[in-house]
Amino acid sequence: MKSVSALSEAQVGESAAACVAAVAAEHADAVDQAGLLPVHALEALRAESLLGLLVPHRFGGPGFSLRTVTNICRRLAEGCASTGLIFAMHQSQAAVAIDHAGESEWHQQLLLRMAREQSLIASATTEGATGGSIRTSACFIDLQSDALHLNKSGSVISYAHAADIFLVSARCSEDAAASDQQLVAVLREQLTLEPCGRWNPLGMRGACTDRFNLMAKCSAQQIFPGRFADVMSLTMLPSSHILLGSVWLGIAAAALGRAQAFLRKRNRAGAPLNPIANLRLAEGEAMVHQMRALIAANLSLYEADDSQTSATDRMVSYNTLKVSASALVVRITEIALRICGIQGYMEEGEFYLSRHIRDAHSAMVMVNDDRILGSLSSVVLGMPITRDV
Ligand SMILES: Cc1cc2nc3c(=O)[nH]c(=O)nc-3n(C[C@H](O)[C@H](O)[C@H](O)COP(=O)(O)OP(=O)(O)OC[C@H]3O[C@@H](n4cnc5c(N)ncnc54)[C@H](O)[C@@H]3O)c2cc1C
Asked: How far is the CA of 65 from the centre of ligand 1 (A)?
């Protein structure tokens, strides 16, 4: 296995990520059509040691920044959004494992394992009884004399069959309130996944997102120190919105790239100039630019070690990124379709956009935008709307 530690962050972005992106792009249509995991891309991610990029040096990783990982998400998603999504979700979970290991010996050992074995981490935060409400759980941590038991019913989990580690949220105990949650890192061999029927989704089909009854038996040491509320607000929410935003940017850029190629081909063939389509391309590029700016601003906020920005302002900013980027990606793929016309509408061919359009629509339901806006609405009511930049 190649060591990325010897390379600079920029070199990894240029070389290893480009290599995986090419593999992902090659298999993207087959993965989408069959609704199968992008196994070749996952193998390439492991072979290039890209799964452990965030793990700090002292735990055997290269300790790369979220910024580098964000750019890799976009790059992968340009060729295959499902691969980009898996990579983004995994890295968000990795960021959680790194930031919240604290002094826990068990979790520090987990970080060593993540770098050494290039483990793939999945997320099990949703459950049938609570739907998309991640900040509440019905299931609970049951500390019995032999072990920790945890049964989570109807949890929606992406790439579960490929994952090595699962971060599972649950109430702290049987009598804890629904929002009094903790997070447990469960190893693949410590859990059983009972499928609740196979999903046949519209888009992101390669992520193989299915619903499962999850039954885990592990050690009490595997509970992350601290409360899930802090894990969520400090790491899981910002990192997932930034990384997924970058996946949606990749979809948008790829779709608009096809529209640009379509117009160039037309122009080369001597077709009459189409000022309306050119205007649409500029409109699409302006939206791509907005997405990039939103991601950049939120990355800076995430990286900044400043106490100037209140927790509320941060929350509003990260959630704004999510709902704005998920709306923009749909609009940009639609603009690309208008430009390519019937050639974009076909299921095959050089300019087909079906996969991009279907993948783009996952963004608004992957934690429903209306749920996010609903939680923002009471906060925004009390905020000054007119403020300096
Ligand atoms: C591609 C994809 C991959 C996923 N992968 C994972 C994964 O790996 N792990 C995981 O745990 N989950 C995953 N999920 C699940 C996801 O995080 C959400 O839980 C799920 O999409 C929400 O499903 P829902 O629309 O039924 O529920 P809800 O979010 O409950 O939405 C249903 C409806 O209720 C409305 N609603 C409900 N409550 C409120 C409220 N308080 N305020 C406003 N509106 C409300 C919504 O607007 C919507 O109309 C994935 C989802 C997708 C699409």
From this structure: 29
CATH H-level, domain 228-381: superfamily: Butyryl-CoA Dehydrogenase, subunit A, domain 3 (1.20.140.10)
Whether residue 137 has its Cβ less than 6 Å from ligand 1 = no
Domain 122-222 falls under CATH 2.40.110.10: yes
137-167: per-residue pLDDT in tens?
999 999 998 899 999 999 999 999 999 999 9
CB of 368 shorter than 6 A to ligand 1 = yes
Ligand 1 pocket mutation pick from 137, 366, 372 by most atoms within 8 angstroms of CB: 366
List every span in the chain annotated with CATH 1.10.540.10.
4-120
| CA 133–ligand 1 middle distance (angstroms) | 7
Give the span between the Cα atoms of 304 and 300, in whole angstroms.
6
Exposure string over 69-93, b if 16+ CB within 10 A, otherwise e: bbbbbbbbbbbbbbbbbbbbbbbbb
- Quick: pLDDT tens for 270-304: 999 899 999 999 999 999 999 999 999 999 999 99
